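Please produce the structure of this protein holding uridine-diphosphate-N-acetylglucosamine.
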Amino acid sequence: MDRIHVVGNIPLQGKCKIQGSKNASLPILAACLLTEGTTGLYRCPRIRDVQSMFSLLQSLGCSVFRTKDAVMVDSTGALFCGDRFCSVEVTGMRSSLCLLGAMIGRFGRAVLDYPGGCVIGARPIDLHLKMLGEMGVVFSEEEGVLHACAKHLRGARLVLPFPSVGATENVILAAVAAEGDTTLIGAAREPEVTALCHFLSDCGAKIEGIGTDCLHVEGGHRLFGTDYAIPADRIVAGTYFFACIGAGGQIFLEDAPWQEMENVLAVGKAFGAKICTNHRGLYVQGPDRPKAIGTLFTDVYPGFPTDLQSMVLVTAAVAEGETRIREQIFENRFQVSEELQRMGADIRLLDEKTVLVRGTDRLTGTPVRARELRGGAALVGAGVLARGETVVGGCEFIERGYERICADYRELGVRITGA
Ligand code: UD1
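Below is the modeled complex.
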C-alpha cells in the first residue's frame, strides 16, 4: 500500500474489531526462542513488524508459519548463526532488540546490527546493556554491530533507573534462562510486559510481582510451548477512539482492552465523549465538537501513552479552546505537527517537549506524508476529520503496526481506500 485516500468530515458510525497488540506480539515471539516444542499464538496481527520478527526467527532456524487462526512457532531447530541478521530487518525495527535477551538466554550470545525503529528520538539502549551486563553479558561493538556474549548468564538484583519497556522485557527474557534468581526493581508496568510474563508463566516460568514495578524471576526452569491469545491492541483501539471524538458519531470497538486504557478514557471524557464499557468492548459517542482538555502529559504506564500523543494532537486541533501537550517519553515526537499544520491545524512548539494547540473548527484535506508509525496513523485520523480529500503517503510506516486501518475505518463509515 503506497497511499491512503480518505474523504472526511462525516460522523463515524458502526463497529470494528480490534487487532492483536503489536507491542505484545513482538517480545512474545522472541520468547518462543526459549521454549521447547510448539507454541500457537492466536490474534497475532498481520503487520510488518510481526512479519519482520518471523523472518528473524526463521533466519535463526525456527519454524514459523500461519494457520487459519494462529501463528505456530517451533524453535527446536534454532541455531546461533555467527553472521548478523539481515540489516533491513533489524534497522527497520527496534523491537528486534527483544531478540537480544532471548538469544542470550538461548545461545549465550547474540550479534545484532545496532537496532533501528521509528524516527522519534535518539532511543539509546544503554539500560539494556547495563542490566544485561550485570547478569554476566559482555558487550562489544564493531562498526555498528553489537556483539554480546555470556559465558555464564546469572541472575542478579537489578535496579532500573527508568522503567524502560524494552529493557524490562530483555531482562525478563534473559532471567528465565539464567542460573539463579533475578529481582528487577523499577520494572516497566506496561500491559505488554505483563502479557510477556503471563505467556512465559504459561510456558513454565516462575515469575512473581507480575504487573508491579518489582519482578522476581526464578531462572533455569524448562519452558514448553503453549497456546496463547495475544491481547488486543490498546493503541489501535485508542486511535479509533480519538478519531470518533474528533469526527463525532458513535462506534463500538469490539475487544478493546479498556481495562488497560483508564487514562485514555479519562482524556476522552475530558474532550466531552460519552463512554460505555462491557465485557465485549468499548462504546464511544463523540461530542458535537470536542472541548479542549487543558494540559496533557504523556507518561509511563499507567500514565497517558506516548503512542497516542499524535492522535490527541489531531483531536485537540479541532477542539474548542487551547490544549497543551507535553511529551515526556520521547523527543522528536511532534514531527507530525508540520503535516497537520498543512491541513490547517494551529500547533505551536513552545519548547522541545511541549506544544500548544489552538483548536480550529475545521481541518482541510491535502496530500501529507507519514514519517513514522504513530504519526502516520494520526495523519489518517486527521483525514477522517478533515473536509475534502486527504492523501497520506509513506504508508509503509503505518503498515508496521496497523493490520487493516482502511478496512477498519470503512466499517466505521469512512470513505477511505488504500492503494
Ligand atoms: C516501547 C514500545 C513503544 C512505546 C514505548 C514507550 C515496543 C516494541 N515499543 O518502546 O511503542 O512508545 O515502549 O511506551 O514495545 N531509553 C533510554 N535507554 C535505554 C532504553 C530506553 O534512555 O536503554 C529511553 C528512550 O530513549 C525513551 C524512553 O527511555 O526516551 C522510553 O523507552 P522504552 O520504554 O525503552 O521504549 P521502547 O521499549 O523502545
